[in-house]
């Protein structure tokens, strides 16, 4: 690829631009502001908001792979939760033997063990994604019913395999020392790990958006979704491209799994199952296949869970389902309906 | 053939298998003494009916619902709460049924009307979310449902083990427990025959048409959403009735026995392994699955110890009795892929493959 200068988007764009639908984007901000008087104290509001944003980012990272794979390949992976659990378990393989390093009181030493752990988790869950795509999903492209059955079967097998390999007990996974504690500004305390999580979530979100919208790979993927045969006729391997998408989606699930496990400081084989429901709700709220909708959906779910848990603890348990019903009443196909289906 | 709604098993092996299962279930109290075989047999009956009702959805309309245990749980809890609150009387049993079944039907109607117009995947995800919310509710409203502990209760006098009708009938004491078992057996057989009637009626044909090509069925003038919703309500009713029987057998209703996600997965496994779109598959699937659950584990335990003695790595873990679901999961995936019509479809050998 030669370096062709990309013309800057001018204001006199000849193509008619679709009208931007910004209301859903404002929704989290409106919700947060509305909660300020209800929560009462400013410092607890900040804490709750930061907690929601961090939780939302983690859910987004886990759900993005699912929505990406659905949006681009029309495959619904009911076994997505398995990648999350696998990522978390693989991270323990690196983090627990090197507990001395992650317990050391130096950021560099901590990162020296955390970064490899995360990368290994992503690599393994990504590789597992390739296997799953080849073995389970390749034979059932275009058949939703069978996809659901196959991937649900895959989830059962994966969960049982995790039990067989690691045993049924909950594995504690302590957070590295320098990520513990909070920054204190006035009477507001912001947990360090939550900030890190928010940063990673933003990077993932921007990364996906840029890749899809600004790179040649993204262009090919989007074209492959629109008209697969045409892209193949132009000499590109759509199959390989989709395999890559599936791998990235699984690796992201693995990343989310590690982050969630560190957040909860424990790993358990049923975590994949538990998170699957949450992720599905997020993906439905966002509009199946829409990465932006998934991002907003994740934030909303986390906010409702956190504010709701603070204000009406009893309601918090079913808050996400109520949110889903409310959103679907408003927009039956999710916040950002993907129009191609 | 009237009783089978003109839809005989159409395969000699399958007929023999079904007759064997039914006969075995009918004579279990007399040939296999002890509590465990009777428990296994009762569970097979209840799950056969539950799985058959799920097959009405999955096999005949092609909709994947993850909320089937919710209806099962509603039936269980309704009768349990009624018997717990009103004491062990027949009026309480009737109250449970009169409240539980319509409640399940109503909920199925609402879910159906709200979400059946969307695609299969969407419906699957929504039902999963609704069912998990229901599970949370059931385990949180402890004043009503007993929370995680569930509700234990006593049955009316007539159904108690202490009520002896015949002291010695071919060496077996005929008591209230055995009467309960036969009520379950007859009730479940009735429900399965009724479902067989439904799927072989004109209504059942429309469901199959919707499964094969929804757009075309709609173009022919069928209001597919209504047909799907009816099927959903019927399936929910049968599931709730099976839940009532289950609670009466266990004398207990709790989240783990009636609502949990793992029961949902069990149902899915039974339908697919037995054969989707064949009500008979439910009987075969439930029998195989529950026999495996109860007896395969012992076998696996022996194999696991043998592998551990031989010093093999990992294999003892994979063969551990608690990992039996791993092997059934593999069988499930293989069966979706290699023989999508399940055991019954294989035995029938007809190329009428359900998509």
Task: Characterise the protein shown here.
- The complex is a heterodimer of chains A (341) and B (355).
- With 341 residues, chain A is mainly α.
- In chain A, 72% of the residues lie in helices and 4% in strands.
- Chain A contains 13 helices and 4 strands.
- Chain A has a two-stranded antiparallel ribbon. Chain A has a two-stranded antiparallel sheet with strand order 2-3.
- In chain A, a hairpin with a 2-residue loop joins strand 2 and strand 3.
- Chain A is globular.
- Chain A starts with 22 loop residues before the first helix and ends in an 11-residue tail after the last helix.
- The mean pLDDT of chain A is 86.
- With 355 residues, chain B is mainly alpha-helical.
- Chain B contains 16 helices and 4 strands.
- In chain B, strands 1-4 form a two-stranded antiparallel ribbon. In chain B, strands 2-3 form a two-stranded antiparallel ribbon.
- In chain B, strand 2 and strand 3 form a beta hairpin.
- Chain B is globular.
- Chain B starts with 11 loop residues before the first helix and ends in a 7-residue tail after the last helix.
- The A-B interface holds A 70, 76, 78, 136, 139-140, 143-150, 152-154, 156-157, 160-161, 163-165, 168, 273, 276-277, 280-281, 283-284, 288, 314, 317-318, 320-321, 324, 332-333 and B 62, 64, 118-122, 124-126, 128-130, 132-133, 136-137, 140, 261, 265, 268-269, 272, 314, 317-318, 320, 322-323, 325-326, 328-330, 332-333, 336-337, 340, 355.
């Amino acid at each position: 690829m030669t370096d062709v200068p990309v013309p800057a988007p001018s204001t006199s764009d000849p193509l008619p631009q679709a009208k931007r639908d910004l209301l859903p984007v404002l929704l989290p901000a409106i919700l947060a502001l509305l909660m300020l008087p209800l929560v009462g104290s400013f410092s607890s509001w900040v804490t709750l908001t930061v907690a929601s944003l961090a939780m939302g980012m983690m859910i987004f990272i886990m759900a993005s792979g699912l929505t990406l794979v659905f949006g681009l390949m029309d495959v619904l992976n009911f076994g997505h939760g398995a990648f999350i659990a696998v990522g978390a378990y693989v991270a323990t393989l690196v983090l627990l033997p090197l507990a001395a390093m992650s317990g050391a009181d130096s950021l560099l030493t901590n990162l020296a063990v955390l970064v490899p752990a995360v990368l290994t988790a992503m690599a393994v869950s990504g590789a597992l994604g390739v296997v799953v795509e080849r073995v389970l999903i390749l034979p059932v492209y275009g058949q939703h019913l069978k996809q659901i059955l196959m991937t649900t079967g895959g989830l059962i097998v994966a969960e049982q395999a995790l039990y067989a390999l690691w045993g049924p007990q909950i594995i504690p996974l302590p957070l590295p020392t320098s990520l513990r504690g909070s920054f204190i500004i006035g009477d507001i305390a912001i947990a360090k790990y939550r900030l890190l999580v928010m940063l990673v979530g933003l990077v993932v979100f921007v990364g996906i958006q840029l890749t899809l919208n600004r790179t040649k790979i993204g262009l090919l993927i989007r074209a492959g979704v629109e008209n697969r045969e045409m892209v193949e006729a132009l000499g590109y391997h759509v199959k390989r491209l989709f395999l890559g998408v599936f791998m990235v989606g699984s690796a992201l699930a693995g990343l989310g799994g590690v982050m969630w496990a560190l957040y909860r400081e424990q790993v358990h084989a049923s975590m994949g199952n538990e998170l699957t429901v949450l992720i599905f709700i997020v993906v439905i709220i966002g509009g199946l296949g829409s990465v932006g909708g998934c991002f907003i959906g994740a934030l909303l779910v986390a906010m409702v869970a956190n504010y709701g848990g603070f204000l009406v603890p009893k309601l918090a348990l079913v808050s996400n389902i109520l949110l889903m019903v409310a959103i679907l009443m408003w927009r039956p196909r999710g916040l950002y309906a993907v129009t191609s289906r | 053939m009237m009783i089978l709604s003109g839809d005989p098993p159409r395969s000699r092996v399958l007929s023999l298998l079904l007759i064997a299962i039914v006969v075995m279930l009918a004579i279990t109290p007399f040939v296999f003494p002890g509590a465990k075989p009777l428990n296994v047999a009762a569970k097979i009956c209840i799950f056969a009916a539950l799985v058959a009702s799920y097959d009405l959805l999955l096999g005949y309309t092609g909709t994947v619902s993850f909320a089937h245990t919710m209806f099962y749980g509603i039936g269980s809890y309704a009768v349990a709460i009624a018997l717990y609150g009103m004491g062990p009387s027949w009026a309480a049993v009737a109250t449970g049924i009169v409240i539980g079944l319509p409640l399940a039907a109503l909920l199925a109607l609402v879910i159906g009307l709200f979400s059946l117009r969307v695609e299969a995947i969407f419906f699957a995800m929504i039902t999963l979310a609704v069912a998990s919310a229901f599970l949370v509710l059931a385990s949180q409203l402890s004043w009503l449902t007993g929370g995680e502990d569930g509700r234990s209760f006593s049955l009316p006098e007539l159904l108690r083990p202490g009520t002896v009708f015949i002291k010695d009938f071919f060496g077996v004491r005929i008591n209230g427990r055995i009467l309960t078992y036969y009520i379950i057996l007859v009730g479940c057989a009735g429900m399965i025959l009724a479902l067989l009637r439904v799927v072989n009626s004109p209504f059942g044909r429309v469901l199959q048409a919707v499964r094969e090509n929804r757009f075309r069925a709609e173009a022919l003038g069928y209001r597919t959403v209504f047909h799907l919703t009816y099927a959903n309500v019927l399936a929910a009713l049968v599931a709730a009735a099976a839940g009532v029987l289950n609670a009466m057998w266990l004398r207990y209703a709790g989240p783990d026995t009636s609502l949990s996600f793992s029961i949902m997965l069990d149902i899915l496994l039974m339908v697919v392994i037995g054969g989707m779109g064949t009500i008979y598959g439910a009987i075969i699937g439930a029998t195989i699955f529950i026999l495996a659950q109860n007896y395969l584990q012992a076998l696996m335990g022996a194999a696991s110890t043998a592998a551990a003695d031989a010093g093999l790595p990992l294999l003892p873990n994979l063969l551990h009795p608690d990992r039996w679901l791993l092997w059934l999961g593999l069988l499930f995936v293989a069966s979706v892929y290699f023989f999508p019509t399940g055991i019954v479809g294989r035995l029938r050998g007809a190329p009428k493959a359900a998509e």
